[in-house]
Each structure stands twice: as C-alpha cells, then as structure tokens.
C-alpha cells in the first residue's frame, strides 16, 4: 500500500494478489495512453479489468491494449454481453477460439440479455473453466425482471459449484438494475439474504455509483469486492474503503461514533 | 469496419464517407493529446466534430487542434452559439472572416439563444452555403419554448431549401431541451411526425444520453445520424448501433424476439 | 486572456493573479499526463487546484504532480477532509509536518465531517496561517445538518478574522449539501444573506454543477469565485462567465433582454 504520510488507525487493506477487497474496473474504450495513465495512478488498487460488454468488437487497439494490461500484471476479461452475443448466434466454439486467440485467462458467463436454461449456463461455466478462470454473473439487465432472493442464492451456489471462481451481482454501467432499484438504491434485503448463504469473498458486487460503494463498504468493510468502477473512480473508491472521504469518515474510527474535537 | 473477430448477423453499417449512420461528437475543450487519443480509438466511427458552443473562443490550442482533426480527415465546425454570438453583436462579416481564417469547411447556423426572423435565418444559410457546407439547427435552448411539430417541419424544409446540407434537432449537451422533455425523455410524436415529411438522412439528431441514442436506433436502425456524442461515448454508441450492448441486443437478431437458449 | 478572434462587448474578466473571478479546480487523481493536458487547455483559467479530500494519501504520483502544478505557477492544496483526518486522530502536528514536507503554500481548514468547537477551529486557522495561506470552509457534508444563515455569517466572519484568506461555501464534489439542497438547487436566500455581511471577493463558492455556476454568475457576475470545478469543466465554465454559452448568452448583452434579429 502506498502511503505519502502516516495516518494512524486506518482499516487494514488486503494487498495484491487480493482475494478479498479487490476492485474490478471497467474499460469501455480507453486509448493506449489512457490505459497507461490509469495504471500509473491506480495500478496498485485495481485487480482486474473488464472490457465493457462487447466494446472489444469495435475498438481498434484491442491487442495492444491487452499487452499493456498484461505487462502491468492486471488480468482482463471480455464483458458477459460478448459471451451472450456469441451464444445468441450459436457460435460458442468461436467464442472459445477468440479467448485462445487473445490469450485470455479470464472469462465471464452471463445471461443478462438472453434467457438461458440454468443447467445450460452451468454447462458453459464448466466447459470454460477448463480453459480460463470463470466469473459468472447473476441478474438481468432488464429492470422489469426481478429475481427473488432465494433464487439469486440458488443460482449463485450452482454456478460456484459448476466451477465459477466468483459470482458477480449485476448492476450494469449505470447501477440501476439487478442488485439495485431503477433509482440506484440498493436492494438491501436481497444483499443481506445472499450473504447468509454465499461466502462474501466469492461475490463481486457491481457498484458503479458512489452511494452504492459506500453502502457496501459500510455493510461489509474495506475489503469487499466491488466492480464496474470507472477508471477515474478507482482512487476515490480507495479513499472510501479507507475512511478517507466524508462518506465513510466516521465509520472506521471512534467505533463509528461522530468525532468531536471540542 | 474494424473487426477483431467474427460475429454473424450484425446489422450492416455504412462506412466512411457516410451520408447515413454518421456520428457527430462534441469536443468541449480537449487537449491535443486527448484529441489524438480520441482519434486512435474512435477515428473510424466519428464523422464530424463540433467544437461545442463558443468554446473555440477560449481554448488556447485552437489552430493546432484543427490541424490534428484535419490530418485525420475529420471535418470540424464551430457550435451554433458562436454564430449567434457574432450575430447578436452585428458581426456577421467578422464571423465569415473567422471561418476563412481557420479554413473551416463546415459551419452551423442556429437560433437557439436568440430570436431570429426565419427569412433572415435562411438568408444566413444561403450566404454561408456559398462559403462552406452548412448545418442548420432547429429548436430552442430554452426549455420553455415549445415549437409544435408542424412548425419544426416547416422550418426544417425551408432551411434545407435555403442550402443547408443537413438539419440538426436541438438537444444541448445535456439532452433536455428541443427534441426532449426536461427529463430527457424523447418527444416521440414530434420525431415521428417530422419523419413523415423530412428524409431521414437529412436529419442529425442530437442525442447525448444513452437512452436517447437507444430510442433513435430502435426506431430508425443502426444507420441513424446522431450527434452531441461525448468523445468517450463514441465506442459505446457504436456497440449500440450494432446490437452489441444490452439495450439493443435483442433488437437486431431473431426478429427482435427474446433470445432463448434452452 | 486568450482570444482566437474578436467578439465585441464581452464582460471584462480579471486576469491572473486574480483576487476576484478565480476558479478552483478539483483533481481527484489525475495522472501526470492528464495534469499536463489540463494545464495546456485550462492553465490560463484555473487559479488554484485542490487535491480532493484525502486522495493525496493514496495517489502514487503526489510529489511529481505537485512539481508539475508548481512549474505552471498554480498553487495546490489538500482537501479539508485530509486536515480533518489528522485532527480526528489527534495528529495536528503531523499534518503541519506533511505541509512542510511537500512545501505546501496553501491549506484548508474545515469541519465538514467532524464536530469541532468553533474557537478551536479558529485556533487551527490562526496557527496554520503562520505557515501557509489558509482557506477555511463553512458547511457540513451531512445533508441533515442545516446551518441557519446568521450562523454561516458569524462563522465566516470569525474565520476571516482568525486569518483565513478566503472562506469556502461547502458543496462537495456532488453539489448537494451545504449551499445546496439535496436536489442541487441553490439555497438562494442563504447566499443573498451572506453577501449582505461578507465581502464577495472573500468567498469561494463551491459550485460543481453547471446550473449552480450559472446561478452564481447571473447573481454576481463574470468575476465570482467558483470552486470544485472538474478539470474538463474549466473551459465550459469560462464560456459561461463570458456569456458565450446558452445559459448566460442573454445575460451580458442587450441589458439582459432577449436578442432579436428581425
């Protein structure tokens, strides 16, 4: 952990390679220099990068970008929508070849845009887990499709058993579906019920909005896994984890009681 | 069209130089390196760049920036508010000299901030069309000024007849006036009525918000002309055009029916 | 003032070094190249930079970043939350040493996250004023804590008397507390009452949202001091100050009456 000066009593942060408290950032079309800039500033704090949905199809700098992340030791994976785009076209084998072509070591399996038989989804997870480390995602991108908590739990458990390394709680780039209401408010009962059954380090919560990050950190501490973080929000997130921004300032010291300097 | 791998059955996209399906991006003060980065990533997908409103007055890198865009073959024009700033000061001839000084090949004529007699507006279009390619804009920046659909149509037709290359539907950077309600919601009846009378390739719809872009693409297809796109949203927009983001995923395949992988 | 062409009758802008009309920008984790890009574009228009809250604790490029700003002649200070983080841990002397270690010439004293006896706050201002130029901030980061206008005035006056160079009206990065309602709307009665008692050039208004900037500029003119401006919004703000964006277009010419070109 970097430290330009000493502040006493900060929460302990896991260091890399982290299994807890890791940050997944979303690259939705950065240039090579922008990737370098991002890594200069946040390389220490970001654990894995997602190339958002199927942006990898259109960006002209894909191979070079993967090289830059790789040189920095930060794994990259294609957004789940790309997996679904191949499935929807009956091109699963092509997808596996694309993963090989680009030497991908991680992949996401999701069903946010298509309806997928869950055994079939677990089959994809199992097959891909022989090739790469799999993150699987639960939750629809459709705000109308509300999955009840017991079902989230059942799906997450089955996907972990099928070989997923971690399961992702869906939120999109906007933070307004899946784990969240359309206003961005956390479905807190859902999250709490999931946590009674699924180990917290196995879950990666998509939480693009600041209020969502704050909510998870207050509930689960500095070392909760958070994802869909915009590149320029990784530093702000790190300060929230450490209680160094107003939102969590009082959470990590003085037993969470207001600080009074009288 | 770039393509890092093959996905079957994507909608056909026009290629440059495009008359349909083109993307206008808004530069509201990028540095030279930021312009280079933008072009590295999105140069293939952006057709024309607007220097937002009168930002060109204050940026210190104007000439150099124009040179970089020009070298990439991407035309640039000053936002309509600059035209209006000259008109409001009775400096139309000065404006024409500014266009020459910077070798501009495109210009916008608008009346979003001032009240302009429409014959006079068409006169400006006619005069400028002898010097440059003219985009003319319809719609007020004032959320209180609602122009009824028949009047939008009358204005657009007259401006095209006066020599405008395309007409722009106003939305501002925020996407909350003109074509849109203050909430950002599309005035869909207005758009549909306009399209009964004005050819769709002659219209450039300002649509800075994602939901607005999605709405136009669902109504008019991958090759609708969209503008006021933030530089870092050109790649995301391209994926929406291609049905490679959740929002339009089901629109372009399977006849728009949900994909079921059972 | 830069000027790529001549527009008549623009409001007069103060030039550097400005005591009125200055712009404070917030850097919440820029890379070195991003700082350079920011200064290329906006160096002429930005007067002082705040390293947001305690981001300086986690960024790995702190010393180098300070060097770049220094070379451009732009003073930098740490956000008030960092001061409070040291106070909350009873490390005020450590904070003073940090200011020396990094050769800081400005510092902020605030009590947005902790409750602080006001005499004690003024004591910190007095002590730090012997070491650096002090900005002190009034207003809580807690949306629930509403300070009545007479109290804002009393606090501001006392802090200026204690040695603060300017007082800051709190708004956060989001612009939704302190001077503003949770919707972002200005507490206009509060601002007007403050201005009956505190000289306008002694106040720096945090106003991160465009509508807030517009409100202050319409009330107080082109040369109001505004802060918490995102780096890429400094150019847009400058155009709003000059009446070169739709929002203030009619404010600075024609005695604020609509321009009619008939």
UniProtKB/TrEMBL annotation, chains A, B, C:
InterPro entries: Aldolase_TIM (IPR013785), ComA_synth (IPR003830), ComA_synth_sf (IPR036112)
Transmembrane segments: none
Signal peptide as annotated in the record: none
Database matches in Pfam families: ComA (PF02679)
Family: Belongs to the phosphosulfolactate synthase family.
Protein name (record): Phosphosulfolactate synthase
Lineage: Bacteria, Pseudomonadati, Bacteroidota, Cytophagia, Cytophagales
């Amino acid at each position: 952990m970097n430290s330009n000066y000493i502040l006493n009593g900060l929460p302990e942060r896991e260091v890399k390679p982290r299994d807890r408290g890791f940050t997944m950032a979303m690259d939705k079309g950065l240039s090579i220099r922008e990737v370098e800039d991002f890594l200069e500033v946040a390389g220490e704090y970001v654990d894995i990068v997602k190339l958002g949905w199927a942006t990898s199809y259109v960006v002209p700098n894909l191979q070079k970008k993967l090289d830059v992340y790789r040189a920095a030791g930060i794994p990259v994976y294609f957004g789940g929508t790309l997996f679904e785009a191949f499935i929807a076209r009956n091109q699963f084998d092509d997808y596996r070849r694309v993963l090989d072509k680009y030497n991908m070591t991680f992949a996401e399996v999701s069903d946010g845009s298509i309806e997928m038989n869950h055994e079939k989804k677990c089959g994809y997870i199992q097959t891909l887990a022989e090739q790469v480390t799999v993150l699987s995602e639960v939750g629809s991108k459709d705000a109308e499709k509300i999955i009840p908590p017991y079902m989230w739990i059942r799906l997450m458990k089955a996907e972990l058993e099928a070989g997923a390394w971690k399961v992702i709680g869906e939120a999109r780039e906007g933070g307004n579906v899946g784990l969240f209401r359309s206003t961005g408010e956390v479905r807190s009962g859902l999250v709490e019920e999931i946590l009674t059954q699924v180990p917290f380090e196995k879950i990666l919560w998509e939480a693009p909005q600041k209020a969502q990050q704050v909510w998870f950190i207050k509930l689960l501490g500095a070392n909760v896994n958070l994802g869909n973080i915009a590149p320029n929000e990784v530093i702000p997130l790190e300060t929230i984890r450490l209680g160094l921004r107003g939102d969590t300032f009082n959470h990590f010291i003085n037993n969470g009681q207001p600080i009074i300097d009288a």
